[in-house]
From TrEMBL:
Pfam families per UniProt: Glyco_transf_8
Keyword Protein biosynthesis belongs to the record: no
Name listed for the protein in its UniProt record: Hexosyltransferase
GO cellular component, one term: Golgi membrane
EC number: 2.4.1.-
TM segment ranges: 37-61
Entry membrane topology: Single-pass type II membrane protein
Length: 533
């Protein structure tokens, strides 16, 4: 917890280092600042009251550093605020601290009428001749109410953001509908992809194969365009775009009408993979149909959440973990890559919320030292928040199975851009491990982990991960606005993981151009659907 009073003393910032969202600014009305009176001391101290309970409160005030108790604060603040003081005033201040201490532990009476503003408080005080104790009590009640209101509006904001993040924007929906329509009316949109003479390339290991699984056509177009435009050897690129049944026609139309030659694109729907059957993917069937789980992801998120016990940050991560996308087959697809592409040796698997800014062909030359999965680690790096993910951030270590098998301090790695050595993978039991842990988590009512597809992969790939340099893949552009722009420019791949996707209104404006750069605004479909206008 940190307290910062600005030099002008017009604002007071209370923030705590581990609760990112909890920081708040309280503006103190300027007219109250000018009097250097006892009243003012009261006001400031009363502000601090709710926070004094936290022993490590740290106060910074023009040269007043590292006060960690109210006594210290009082000693320092008193004379400073009062200007030159004599004994009687000092006694007054001392008495006042005594009152504050009493008030800070007292219950606030029910039905205490609280003024709505400080102006009203001041006028109430003049009219009713409050004694110092009543005054302090009212102040404290006001602050606590204010804090509650802040929290509630923060939660409301997070809920709104959650729904904004999980609904499909009008423009993207329009794009999908129009392209689907085009598929049935325009033979060119239905043309074979790739053209028949290039089909052998799809399983030729001399090419660089990328796999992208998504139902978002616009996002897919950005990933593919950015990869091709950033490549020094676009003629070596083969993209395998996998989508769901409902998006297939639209996705196919897009890539049939917007060639990225000399690169090659193949569009497939999950229903076209003979391998994806109930026998081979038993767990996913269970995941999608399990009633309790459907409720969990699609149900009422506020009900059952005790807002007085949670923090906005925990709540946000809870909401995110309940995003319906985590139960979709498209998301779990990556664990079946060796079976879906039986002839390929190496692929780079990409998420749809990334942009490629550099030639990725050197990825195929990275020595994976016999490992299966080349990934960036997420526990080291400049960005303290994004790069602080260890296993303990993903798993419930109170669960005996988790505690027995995993080390909470072990570094996690990221999905989004991974190089997979499928030949080595085929010799392992990664898929079986993944399945057995998914089942175990279902059986224990999702108490082992909540957040979708990464945790079971963190277990299944244990011992099979080779860390690659973090400049290959920069994370966090979708969950914080204070991303370092210089690093964004330098990264080979930037990843908008988090809620604030660049195609949503809640995306961060200053990070959006890195993505929109690859949206073709002169394309008729994009124009007619008014995408991000
Ligand atoms: C929420 O938690 C607080 C503090 O533990 C408790 O007093 C309150 O009864 C809880 N509310 C609900 C609805 O469970
Ligand atoms: C899971 O939840 C169901 C119903 O909510 C309950 O009957 C069952 O005992 C729970 N199982 C475990 C392992 O907690
Ligand atoms: C973590 O696991 C323990 C033991 O199974 C369980 O009691 C607890 O509810 C779990 N916590 C969460 C948040 O699921
Ligand atoms: C953008 O779309 C237009 C019209 O479809 C097309 O002529 C142009 O080549 C596209 N530009 C890029 C960079 O793909």
């Amino acid at each position: 917890m940190q307290l910062h009073i600005s030099p002008s003393m017009r604002s007071l910032t209370i923030s705590s280092s581990n609760e990112f969202f909890d920081s708040m600014k309280i503006k103190v009305a300027p007219p109250l600042i000018s009097y250097r009176t006892l009243f003012h001391t009261i006001l400031i101290l009363a502000f601090l009251l709710p926070f004094v309970f936290i022993l490590t409160a740290l106060v910074t005030l023009e040269g007043v550093n590292k006060c960690s108790s109210i006594d210290c604060l009082g000693r320092r603040l008193g004379p400073r605020l009062l200007g030159r003081v004599d004994d009687s005033e000092q006694r007054l201040v001392r008495d006042f601290y005594k009152i504050l201490n009493e008030v800070s532990t007292q219950d606030i009476p029910d039905g205490l009428k609280l003024p709505n503003s400080f102006r009203q408080l001041v006028s109430d005080m003049k009219n009713n001749h409050y004694d110092a104790k009543t005054f302090s009590l009212i102040l404290r009640a006001m602050i606590e109410k204010f804090e509650r209101d802040m929290r509630e509006s923060k939660f409301a904001e997070l809920m709104n953001k959650h729904f904004a993040a999980s609904s499909i924007p009008k423009g993207i929906h329009c794009l999908s509908l129009r392209l689907t329509d085009e598929y049935s009316s325009n033979a060119h949109a239905r043309r074979q992809l790739p053209s028949p003479e290039r089909l052998p390339v799809l399983s030729d290991n001399a090419y660089h194969h990328f796999v992208l699984a998504t139902d978002n056509i616009l996002a897919a177009s950005v990933v593919v365009s950015s990869a091709v435009q950033s490549s020094s050897k676009p003629e070596k690129i083969v993209f395998h775009v996998i989508t769901d049944k409902k998006t297939y026609a639209g996705m196919h139309s897009w890539f049939a009408l917007n060639s990225v030659a000399p690169a090659i694109v193949e569009v497939k729907s999950v229903h076209q993979f003979d391998w994806l059957t109930r026998e081979n993917v038993p767990v996913l069937e269970a995941v999608e149909s399990h009633h309790g789980i459907r409720n969990y992801y699609h149900g009422n998120h506020i009900a059952g959440a005790n807002l007085s016990e949670t923090t906005p940050r925990k709540f946000a991560s809870k909401l995110q973990s309940r995003s319906p996308k985590y139960i979709s087959l498209l998301n779990h697809l990556r664990i079946y890559l060796p079976e879906l592409f039986p002839n390929l040796d190496k692929v780079v698997f990409l998420d749809d919320d990334i942009v490629i800014q550099r030639d990725l062909s050197p990825l195929w030359d990275i020595d994976l030292h016999g490992k299966v999965n080349g990934a960036v680690e997420t526990c080291r790096g400049e960005d303290e928040w994004v790069m602080s993910k260890r296993l303990r951030n993903y798993f419930n270590f109170s669960h005996p199975l988790i505690a027995k098998h995993l080390d909470p301090e072990e570094c996690a790695w990221a999905y989004g851009m991974n190089i997979f050595d499928l030949r080595t993978w085929r010799k392992t039991d990664i898929r079986e491990t993944y399945h057995s842990w998914l089942k175990a988590n279902l059986k224990s009512n999702l108490t082992m982990w909540k957040l979708g597809t990464l945790p079971p992969a963190l277990i299944a790939f244990k011992g099979h991960v080779q860390a690659i340099d973090s400049s290959w893949h920069m994370l966090g552009l979708g969950y914080q606005s204070n991303t370092n722009i210089e690093n964004v420019k330098k990264a080979a791949v930037i990843h908008y993981n988090g809620q604030s996707k660049p195609w949503l209104e809640i995306g961060f404006e200053h990070l959006r151009p890195f993505w929109t750069k690859y949206v073709n605004y002169s394309n008729d479909f994009i124009r007619n659907c008014h995408i991000l206008e």
